Amino acid sequence: MALFDRHPLLIRPVRAALRRTSQGAGDLDRRTSPRPAGHLLRPVLLILCLLPLQGCGLILDAVELVYPLTTSQLDGICRRGQVQVGMAVEPFRPFVFPAVWTDEGARVTGLDAELVRAVSEALAAHCGIPVEPVLHLVRFRDLFLLLNEGQLDFFVSAVDAGVPAPERSGFAYSTPYFPDGGISGITKQPELVDRIRARLTDGGDSPSSAAVLERLTVAVQEGTAAHLYAGAVAKPKHLIVCDSLPAAFEYDGTAPIDVILGSQPVLEFMIRTMRHEWRMLTREAGRPLMFTQAGYAVVMAEESYRLRWLMNDVIFRLGETGRLQRMRHRWLEESYAYPRRASTEGLPFDVNKMPAHYAQGTCRESSPH
Length: 369
Known about the structure:
Number of helices: 15
Number of strands: 15
Structural class: alpha/beta
Radius of gyration: 24 Å
CATH architecture of the largest domain: 3-Layer(aba) Sandwich
CATH topology of the largest domain: D-Maltodextrin-Binding Protein, domain 2
Order of helices and strands: HHHHHEEEHEHEEEEHEHEHEHEEHHHEHE
Shape: globular
Largest sheet: 6 strands, mixed
CATH class of the largest domain: Alpha Beta
CATH superfamily of the largest domain: Periplasmic binding protein-like II
């Protein structure tokens, strides 16, 4: 108390912070945010430790008794019995399919949903209690923001782990669970496929892959690796930025779309199963024209070290047992009705989010430079 005798103005904020901390620890199971209540004390502790006080260490020790400041994200998941998972509301087939209504309620399925179930099982084994995945379906561009704000423990939506962009700094990525990704393109113009292939196979001064897009109108989904690539490297004549891939397919603007850029396995799956009038851009012998190579990974906060170790171990064991390869084959190569799979193995989510899930958004022209 001698500390507060010398600094009486500190009594009220410290007591209030301690009271909120103790209440937050008791209510943690009912909160959706994975951030511990102890973060409320940090500004107060910083002020105290900046003062010329010999007892700062004692204060920190006392606060640690009330609530441990070094509690890990993994410990928080175990205490709640829930893990907050983000997925893109825009369908990235076959990684994430559109939500469907089943007898059990709204469900989402896909390769990424099956991976989330495997991670939840591993979390339950680690925690010694059932761990429920709480699904948050939001726009892809908002997933990084929600994770940064502590509203998600991790998110998964066919995310390229190697994209250089300032808005993606401060995040960490798991071991890739899908190593054969990358950016490719599709078009409705057969003659464009032939023209691009001829340019790339010319001898001598053959242009780079990015150069073939310079005089074209290119559409991308906002916030994705394809969007960042188009602005930083490709620089097409016209860049059409869309809220979702379905919006790009339906775009009818003043500048007709020549090429849609996106995740190669997603685009290939879509034209094989539902967009038959579109064609992949290819090199010689029909090889897909790839603009980048990428491995898709789970995204977490940079400081979530223990959760990342668990995630990497899950992906490693899935690979060692062959289950990961079976998952890829099951979702990318087999013929199936995804609503049926959703009804038997899909992840549940809030039915009130269904209207937002089916709102595919719009497209707009943006400067590619």
